[in-house]
Amino acid sequence: MKKLFCLIIIAALSVSAFAQKPKFKILAFYTTTVESDHVDFANDAIKHFTALAAKKGFVFDTTTNWNLINDEHLKNYQLVMWLNEFPQNEGQRAAFVRYMDNGGAWLGFHVSGYNDKDTHWPWFVQFMGGAVFYNNNWPPLPAKLIVDDTKHPVTKGLPARFTAPINEWYGWKPNPRMSKDVKVLITLDPANYPLGKKDVIRGGDIPVVWTNTKYKMLYLNMGHGDHIFTTSLQNKLFENAIMWLGAHR
Ligand code: ZN
After folding, report:
1. pLDDT of residue 10
2. Which end of the chain has fewer CB atoms within 10 angstroms, the N or the C?
3. Which residue range(s) make up the domain with 178?
4. Cα of 140 to ligand 1 centre, how many Å?
């Protein structure tokens, strides 16, 4: 009887250990000294994803120390998130390349995908599917979006068209859709044009969410200001993105 009781205790303990084991671990990098709208987004994202982590059973750690992009530290995490910045020095950049080449996953928001002639990181341009920042709208505005593929795990549950909350939208040249490795999941609806007042996007095919299928990566252009997490529809997109990348081994 005593032995059986012990066995039951052991079984119960191992079941609860299994239930509590996180599905995967995320490390989100951000910076507090960048454009204030980008800091606002990072603060909102940390609040939102911390709550989501408790609900969905993953670990969500955050840091402003970009030197933690190193082999030793990143091996603890299955998904790296960049909320409002990208690595600036060679050591961090090289460690990130190794992380991705070794099967790590990345989710980048808004300015984290920004690159231009001064970025000097050709690997990152190909990682983004060839996309180089071209233009933007100002002030930030809501926009109609078209879901290119409603069956993909990242977009499932979304309608074919929806309106995203206020954001600064980026155009890209080259257009990442031109890359054979890129799968575009969401596109800016041409019905928005002209979009902006001071800076106006007047036309063009502008992907908003895409993956470079050579990597476990997803780029989301959302991430400007304090309105990003205000609709359940777009929040569902973010949740899908995290769960897809977290499970995508
Ligand atoms: Zn912005």
Report:
1. 54
2. N
3. 24-247
4. 8
